[in-house]
Amino acid sequence: MAYITSNDYKNVIYSGDARHKVKIIFNGVELEDADRYCEKITRQARILPNDGSKRFSIDNFMSQEIELILHKIDTSIIQDQVEISIGTLVDSENDTYEYVPLGIFNIQDTPTTDKDKITIKLRDNRVKFDFGYNAEPLIEENGGTATKLQILNNICSQAGVTNNVTSFLGQSDEIGISDNTITATMYIAYIASQAGAIATINRNGELDFIYLNNLSTIKIPLYIVEKYELGEPYTIERVVYEDGIRKYQSSNDETLSTLYIASDNPYISNQEQIDAIYDILKNFTIDSCTTGKIYGDPAIDPYDIIEVYGYYQELPNGNKQFVDDEDTVVFRTLANHTMTYTGKIISIYDTKIGKEARNENVSKIGEASFRQYAKTAINNINYNIDLIVGEQNEQSERITDLQIDINSIQSLFQITGGTNLIKNSQFLLPDEVWDIVISNNGYCTELGQGYNANLIGRTTAIANIVMKDASITTKENNIVGLKVGQQYTLNYYYTLDNNATATVTLTGANSGNTIFTKTYNTSQSNLEREIATFTANETSYILSITTSTTLDGYFTIYDLMLNSGDIKNWEPSISEVYSTVLKMSQLGLQVYAVGSQTVTLLTSMGFAIYTSSNGEIGQLVTNFTNSGIETIDIIASGKIKNGKWIQKDITINSYNHHIEYMESD
Question: Which of the chain's ends, N or C, has fewer CB atoms near its CB within 10 Å?
């Protein structure tokens, strides 16, 4: 809101002979007699996007920029942070100036020098939010979710900026996922937008939310306006969010003047939010206009309403006289302006608003916030197309990235994390997240040994845990993040051989209370599914599986899964990543398992496996062609390199034998 000034100030600020002084403070040290050194101050204070689109939007975190030109100054005094105030003479007899602070600013670039002049570019504290924000630690600290207000406070804390926003629409909504590729600046803009507000930095350097229907109105007499040009009035009659899959709208009347919420806002997830935003913004009306130079007032913020009033009355002698009638409003617009100080204060207001075209770039689609999305990027320099589609659950992300250029098509299939709360539930990762005890004759699945091709199409996972006379237990930090009072489901498939018994137990990590226990002692050769639903009374649990046999017999567990809510099919845990790259090029069809050291190549000439490093194809390992098999290295009872497969019929002691072997070079 506009900086509050005295009546004496208001009486003189628009007089043509108003006198001013400037005050500049570098890192708490005031520049003495600053007017001697200050040649020019230019402040860009814009609430509308400065991208030439002439669109009205609330999806921006507003920033104020200043260019400060000083001359004949000792450059050693120039330090962050910079505070600037402009004073106006309000009592000439006592030489009294009333100062208005422009704000607290940060030096953006190394100051430049031209002869005896130095130019310093400054930005307000919004610049401190230019970092990739990761909400995951905050979410984990709070048991799996964090409110939007907690996220906002956490962002401000990391930025080192005071948060002046204590409440807003949707502040208690719980968020269980995060995207650290989004900057803190965008997170702030998204949170403000879903609250029906615009984010900004106030004169004290604090974060604030601005609401369009609660702005200060500053009255300016028409006689100080050199010239102006009016466009059509702009009124918010309708609010729409559309992302390619979902469409939420306060009205389906497309003839109404519409405010579009950015389609990439991850915090918009239902119709009720759009209705609430509309209730906050409805009937906000301003004139689209631009002015010539007028006397400026540093007390005006870019999110104030400028109301130009009065009219000219024609006199009998042909001259015109201004009539100071505040009820006659010439135009009413936002103070979107550039202000220049050179001893005098001059402003130009530019609030051109065109009819909103439906040209929003659809960058995310989905059934809920951060859930499903699609992005398409076209590189006009390299002539590449990159299409990314994905899905995110509360704790998981699946991605397919299709890259097309003139020479190849490459697709990345990826599972990044999952809703499973059991880390390494299929023993496909190193087993340090489980405690394992095996008897002398016992057995427990090791990495890769649990793979069972017969499971494909029968269960979700392709791995299983095979146990004989063994005990495995998750560690205390392995099943965490549960919320007290929330429902969870443990489920898995199993088989049990004759002469084997097994017990599966889930207990509280802190209390030791048993949530679920089941003992199996009847042979089960077909897949059987176990489902156990419970309400959490702790935030951390321990799962143990114990087996014993009298003869050789195994207990095998498949698709071990613990998730919030009702039963779900197996997924990896949040810490697990599985990726496969499929590439079609001149070489043929190439398949990489990300992180592996081989690539499989399928061409019209045959099937081959090569070594691979960072996606680059190396040496041939095995080649299957119409001429036979070529293998660099075979491991059986030893190693035979660069050999040839030999087939012979031989006779030993009157008996005929057929033998095959690899002959080494």
Answer: C
